[in-house]
Design brief:
Helix-turn-helix domain-containing protein, 248 residues, Rossmann fold, MEDS_domain, 10 strands, globular, Multidrug-efflux Transporter Regulator, Chain: A, Domain 2, SinI_DNA-bd, DNA binding, HTH_17, alpha/beta, seven-stranded mixed sheet
Length: 248
């Protein structure tokens, strides 16, 4: 329909990104829009023309299309905390669209902060938790009480609960840091064991790390971590590079 006006949420869903990203594009002029009172609207014909002009940008919006909805264990490297939360929110929205149950494991993240960050990115966290469609677990606490087996058991238990509830897959995201398990060798042991464990379960799992943890002194450590995952994605400001690990 000519001159059809779209809401920010409709455009975000169409481009597979977050409303916050659309607001940022509107404010910067990257995406032309009109303001009706306090609300932004985007003309569909303007959006269509922008997509034609910027076809390479379409690729940057299709990261979730790269993730196969079957057994998968992926490592992500995000440029900052905001990008990490954007990636997790996008990942969870994809899982919900496929009618899968969600699992969020926290290492350095505070569970209440996670709830707030995901909610501001358009996920109905309270409703999802109430319906047992999303569970948020403190994996650092599990590790402290049981060692490596603690977070492994958390992933396994949630996968089994997901199966009992009748969902085909658990879509889960953890958020380790290089120091999450103390000694780096313990982290490698955990990621290797997690990779073996998830391969036997109906789980699509992603382990986002922050780029600020990466320096020239620990580049080899990041390479070792990459080899504990089937795929690796580098994510920054809605752009990404997706790599398949030929060694996995």
């Amino acid at each position: 329909m000519k001159n059809e006006l779209l809401t920010v949420e409709e455009v975000a869903d169409f481009l597979r990104t977050t409303p916050n990203t659309i607001y940022r594009w509107l404010r910067s002029g990257k995406l032309p829009g009109v303001k009706l009172g306090k609300e932004w609207r985007i003309r569909k014909e303007v959006l269509d023309s922008k997509l034609v002009e910027s076809r390479p940008n379409l690729k940057r919006q299709s990261l979730m299309d790269e993730i196969e909805p079957k057994n998968n264990h992926m490592m992500a490297i995000a440029s900052n905390e905001a990008d990490l939360y954007n990636l997790e929110a996008e990942f969870f929205k994809k899982g919900l669209a496929l009618n899968h149950r969600l699992f969020k494991g926290c290492w350095w993240q505070n569970t209440d902060d996670v709830r707030q960050e995901l909610a501001t990115r358009g996920l109905p966290v309270e409703e999802l938790e109430r319906k047992n469609l999303l569970t948020i677990v403190d994996l650092a606490k599990k590790y402290k009480s049981m060692g490596v087996q603690g977070p492994i058991k958390a992933w396994t238990d949630e996968a089994n609960i997901t199966n009992e509830l009748g969902y085909n897959f658990l879509w889960g995201s953890g958020s380790p840091g290089l120091g999450s398990c103390g000694d780096f060798s313990n982290l490698i042991h955990f990621e290797s064991l997690l990779d073996d464990t998830l391969a036997k379960l109906n789980v699509v799992g992603i382990c986002p790390y922050l780029y600020k943890d990466s320096t020239k002194d620990n580049l080899n450590e990041f390479i070792e971590l990459m080899n504990c995952h089937q795929n690796v994605v580098f994510y920054s400001n809605d752009s990404f590079v997706y790599l398949k690990n030929s060694l996995s």
